Amino acid sequence: MKVDGKYFRSIWLEPDGWSVGAIDQRKLPHQFVVARLTSCDAAADAIRSMLVRGAPLIGATAAYGVALAMRADSSDAALDAACKALLATRPTAINLKWALDDMRATLGHLPASGRAEAAYTRAGEIADDDVAINQAIGQHGLALIEVLAATRKPGERVNILTHCNAGWLATVDWGTATAPIYLARDRGLAIHVWVDETRPRNQGASLTAWELGHHGVPHTIIPDNTGGYLMQHGMVDLVIVGTDRVAANGDVCNKIGTYLKALAAHDNGVPFYVALPSPTIDFSVDDGTQIPIEQRAADEVTTMTGRTADGRIESVRIVPDGSPVANYGFDVTPARLVTGLITERGLFKADRAALAAAFPERTAAAAE
Length: 368
Ligand code: MRU
Prior knowledge:
The protein has 368 residues and is α/β, with parallel strands linked by helices. It has helices spanning 40-48, 55-72, 76-87, 95-107, 112-151, 178-186, 203-214, 227-232, 258-267, 299-302, 352-358, 360-367, and strands spanning 2-3, 6-7, 11-13, 20-23, 34-37, 158-162, 191-196, 219-222, 238-241, 245-247, 252-255, 272-275, 281-282, 303-307, 313-317, 330-333, 340-343, 346-348. It has a 7-stranded mixed β-sheet, sandwiched between helices.
């Protein structure tokens, strides 16, 4: 997408042909800073520190991390070590493992001398595929918004609520939950997005709002607890969220707080959709209870970071000294609360049979 008139992806190969550029998401929305990753360690650190984040982007970064590793040393041992180090960075988003498995399958049978070039080629393909997948998700989601606009809201704006950041920054481009929103905006549909701030990292307030603002999408940031009120008062027509992992039965793991939005949506008859690329489906886990939930550092909860009136970026403590903190990064929304899954192959029910029928090759691979 464009930032101040210039086209950016969230990650790219630099013109030198080997180092990797990425937007440093820790600095947004106050500073737009580009980072240059020059080693596998740097790629792993970028994922761990959330310089890059969001399931599909984590996968693409890991793929480039393997390429950087192969450039330095393309032995079997180096390939193993790179995959192991990258896999250990974050536990919940399955796209990380998916991308590493893919890289291993691509490189494992090649002679060491051919691995670096093949790794860069495959990492580039994974990134390009993500863009194409998200565009397809956008088309299917757009059709949904168009029907809703025509049947339920003729002549009025459609209000969409989203949680966390499942926008182009969380992917390589377009985003998952935001792809239909950007296309709807480009088509001239009257839409407005309620943006959950998404404590503690504030991916909604810092990233989603920044993205939507740059694309001219009308939006309003709301504290995380506001969605239920809005739904009770008919102010939300549709919820679209992203996901970090979908289990074989359609349970959806996403940023902490998603489940509460799904409950509120269910209680108020608001459609609750999840937008996802197929690499986010984990056919090896039977249901959401088997998905590992990341627990993150306490300082994400105990402090807040922002820009002071005179332009300095500062962190301040917001809780009493000594109070214990819990920081679960994700929760699982049971499939029964999900109206539908928006994928690159179309709209599906969140259930085992529908997912297996939609992605037969993935189910077969998981059974091997
Ligand atoms: O912890 P994060 O920021 O990496 O969390 C990932 C997310 O942004 C989401 O939960 C998102 O909705 C799914 S990724 C498209």
